[in-house]
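User: Quick sanity check before I run a bigger batch. Here is a single chain. Can you write out its predicted 3D structure?
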Amino acid sequence: MREEFEKLASEGKVRAKDLDALEQLTESGYCTHRTWGLGKITTVDTVLLRFLIDFPDREGHSMDLGFAAKTLTPLAKDHVLVKVATDLQGLQEMAAVNHVDLIKLVLKSHGGSATAAQIQEALVPDVIGDDWRKWWEAVRKEIKKDGHFRVPVKKSEPIEFNEEVVSLQARLLGDMQEARGLKAKLVVASEILKSQDDLENVTEAYQLAMSLLDHEIPNYLKNQPELVLDAIFARNDMRKALRVEPAEGQIEDQAVWDMVSDLPAFMDALPATRNKPALNSYKSHHPESWENDLIELLNQSQMKLAGDVVQLFEDAGQQELIWETIKKLVNQHQASSELMLWLGKSRSDDRADVYGPEVFRAMITAMERDQFNEKRTSRLNDFIMGDLDLLPELIAKADLEVVKDLTRALQFSSCFDDMDKRSLLGRIVKIYPAIQALISGEATTSEDRGLLVSWDSLLRRRGEYTELVQKKIPENSKEIAVARSYGDLRENHEYKAAKEMQKILMKRKAELELDLTRARGTDFAEVNTATVNPGTLVRVNELSQNKNENFTILGAWDSDPESGIISYLSPFAKHLIGKSVGEEVDMEQDGQKRRYRIESIETHQHQFKHAGLHEEDAASEQ
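Assistant: Done. Predicted structure follows.
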């Protein structure tokens, strides 16, 4: 085809500078377009000066030769993208049993080097359809051992393939000597530590790394103490593995702490993986002040560091001190958003005394405070919206009035948009339906404002509520704690049953609180008998059968149909209330229409156990 293209160029039909590109496209037969993807050249038409190319969504697409030379990238027949299209099964077999050859193919397709992201893009999902991360972790370890590959520590840097074999030990030691500055040497030293099982001579590698780190450490002590501490920990890990004593004049962690004047800033600059050893080091070198210093650090930490601080106190037997500090910060709404984020993610039944509606109030305050910080973050906001169980769990045991206050705080908060507010308010209403009226602002009916109940029924319901909150719920909490101690919660049937019972108890608690909030006790004395009212005995005649019946209309919770007592909220009572003697009402019962005439209205004859009580008397009865 070269001669034909040259002839076309001599006739001025194609440009001479496009000849190489056209020849490569013709020889390979495959190409890529930045928008249409992989293409297969099916026809080279030198008469009409065009290619016919099959793209995934453009079969038989016609493209001018000159335009194709400028816009298409030729691919070799052994390019990984071509192999995916022509020999997918073969690649999948390589992915299963011959990892090294597969990665070699991908790297050669990218000119000898490619990042982990580029390798993933080439293989997922066609070649690697399962868990890429798990597959890649195993393959990365394998190619590190192979002398043909150079695997960098940073994921963003490309993996390289070389024909010449260089052992992992030789490469790492070479990198260690070539690295400039403490930070670069520390990166390689960390890789040496991770690769210790694959090195030919660990002692040689550790000794070289320790020597080079010690050489650099003094130069950075004053200006980058956090980098020095990281290097000291790496060096000491190697020293411990080799079981050698410190060399004379070696700089230790005490020298670093002597340079630190701002502990929160220092810890923020330190890699999170060094949090725990750094905290333990600080504690050992500051035996008199570590408790106060780390309590102050707690509220200025990122989430992970906050958790590590709490763990340090617990390991030191100071769990009560640190948790009392956390409770104080929460109750005073002084906790940072990062601390609240850790607290929300770490909640458990073991610390049930800490978790309640005040935690959510403190979260709102922390987020509102963050709105005025330069380093604004949405991490706590995202967590609250994403964890559907958080808010229900925090308010499950709260009193209705407390939930009302929380609802108002949420409504007026500026840290949630309208859609998120509606979502959170919906979670509250699901547990406390009485909050709906507060949210919607709708006018309440007489039934919504209050329930007319007898003192007897009110005392019974109050007794049920008292038993629930003082006996049943605490017993259930103990059952949950005991069940948790049995182990794996996913297979712990006792735990699941106790948690389900908790939901039932909490739902009943919310129902009782709503009822008791609305209830108005009465003994139905001095009732007006001019019309049917709650507290009256009504005699009616069912006209179709000329049958007389008596009904005593009492409170919302007094219904006893067998004794002729009905609630004033029942459908039949609602039809009668307000009517006078001689009036008739229509009712539908059991699918049949019936007509009743009121024959007489009298004061009820029911004997209440607690007749004559007033509100204060009812309270003392409890």
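Residues 257 and 282 are 7 Å apart (CA to CA).

User: Great, the batch can go ahead then.
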